[in-house]
Amino acid sequence: MSKNPDQALRLMIVDDSVEDAEAIVSALRNSGIAVRPLRPASEDELSTMLGGQQIDLVLAAQQGKDLPFATVMQSVAASGKDIPVVAVSNGIDDTSFHEAQSAGARNIALRDKPQQLLATVRSEWDDLEGRRALRRLEARVRETERRCDTLIESSRDPIAYVHQGMHIRANSAYLEMFGYESFEDLEGMSLLDLVAPQHVNDFRELLKDLAKGDAPPPRYDLEARDADGNGFPASMEFAPATYEGETCQQVIFRRQEQLLDPGLAQELEELRQRDQVTGLLNRPTFLHMLEDAVADAAQNKAQHGLLLLEPDHHQRLLHEIGLDAADAMLAAMAERLRTAIGDDAVAARFSEHSLAVLIRGSDYAQTTALAERIREAFASHVFPIGNRSSVITASIGGVQIGEKIASVTQVLAKANQGVQSSIGVGGNRFEIFDPSAVERAEEEHVQAWVARLRDALDQENFVLHYQPVISLQGDTGAVYETFLRLDAGDGELVKPLSFLQIAEEHGLLWEIDRYVIGHTIATIGQRISAGKPTTLLVKISQASLNDDSLVRYIGEQLVAHGVPGEYLVAQLPEAKVFTHLKAAQEFAAAMGKLDCRIALEQFGAGLDSFQLLAHLKPNLIKIDRSFVEELPKNVANQERIREIANKARELGIRTIAEFVSDAASMSILFSAGVDYVEGQFLAGAGPDMGYDFE
């Protein structure tokens, strides 16, 4: 299961040995897993932690004596939570395996096989995320069904749900059309009973075809019969559906007036299916077609293509042409799209300013070719918009609909993801998700990001934002934390979470570090020259921590800009210092010679964070954000913060609490003796440094 790379594993380790537990945490962090560990020392602590915190996984020593494995399993079961337990064993045989399985452990990991332990942790975490996602999806489905039921009941269209030819649901408009007072009069009645005798045989054959999975006709005309036996001309529409988890058919009846001209009726039906601004299909009609295509892929292993597209820099375009011309712009886009797709595909207006295309019977190559044809048709065209004209490029996201992704929800989500990803790397491009070629699509996405990062470094398209770090103890000096942003154009700024992992994997992270540090020092120099001396905190990545040339570069930049080292604070994450202690010690010593200061961030997330301070003494520590979230409600976190602040003060280290979100948290942090705070509640990060520290 794909997880946010910054997502932390909330891990409980039950082990007699602190050293063994820390070794497991270090191994997981070295493999790239962010870990928030807990280690209960008693049965009471175990119960308190299970009851008061979210825990993703428990690693419990099968041969533990302080907290026996059976006790751990009983406590986890008593919590009533879905918390997988992995038994950590010194060795495995039939007896130990049977005991672990019988106790309820989901898996067994061998202590002396770190790769197997790591694989087990990843597997169980993925399974847990899958179960959580399924529960969220089931909740959304129930909510969607509830809303759909409400919408159906309020609809003016006569709508019913039919299973094996029998009515299982009908709305008020349907009951009114056929003259029934309540659904109880209709429940369980065959749909054939509402059809005039001369149409019964043909209609019975239609129901048999639908039951076999055949596609329904777009429209079926017949004579219907109401509760009193009176006949009237009607048309019917069918769509596959589910009701209360049961596969069925949605049926919509429409009364046709006797004197209505057939040609006029068809024209009205055509208008009902069209968007009035663009002339393309409207969203409901398109979704019906998409549902049919997805069902065809699931049942008949067919392949179809879906494309969603949005104009790049939409807000800027609206600003240039005026809101009154928005419909004209969309109509011009629709006309250009119509000419690009030809007769082999259908197009629709999918939302306010996005269009959609469905290509039936299309393989990946054909879907990709059409996406490129549309992209080129937009990029090479000057769009007439009323009395003006404009160049409009498009970002396109697509999905190859096949047996592996036969779900409308998944199809639309993947297509929209492709649109947003295309916008994120500059627009005027397309991304097609093919379940059979995920690796290829991912590689193309990564290479686009690498090229964009390389260009951002060369063209200086990175920008820095600053968030004030405010003293709770009366210090009025200006202090800010520096944050990196990527300028995506059109005023859009991309946060590092979207690209730092790619930058690290492709050797660009050390260059980005130098960009940030160089510009940070230059900014400090400008502030000093303006008579506004300012201290800036800047993050240092692991890639630069292991590169001894970074300190030389910092020294050169300090001299070049006339900046005393005391105004620069380099932040190191606790987890990386634990696993790269020697490099961190050498870096801190070298920075000390320049009078620069060191801050240790994400402090307190380890099993014994203060043990680290015996090997590396920073000037500041930033308390891990997990202790600050919902602080007023969490007494344990309040006590932990007070403990950290007191110990830090004894060692002459100042403390910073980040992500402060309310006044109650501020009061608690002040009384705990924390030195500095930062967060959206106080001031957000921005390009300017205008906070009044007085």
Automatic annotation (TrEMBL):
InterPro entries per UniProt: CheY-like_superfamily, Cyclic-di-GMP_PDE-like, EAL_dom, EAL_sf, GGDEF_dom, Nucleotide_cyclase, PAS, PAS-like_dom_sf
EAL domain mapped to chain residues: 446-694
Species the sequence originates in: Luteimonas notoginsengisoli
NCBIfam families named among the record's database cross-references: GGDEF, sensory_box
CDD domains: EAL, GGDEF, PAS
Family matches, as Gene3D superfamilies: 3.30.70.270, 3.40.50.2300, EAL domain, PAS domain
Domain GGDEF: 302-435
Domain PAS intervals: 164-214
Family annotation (PROSITE patterns): EAL (PS50883), GGDEF (PS50887), PAS (PS50112)
Protein's recorded name: EAL domain-containing protein
Superkingdom of the organism of origin: Bacteria
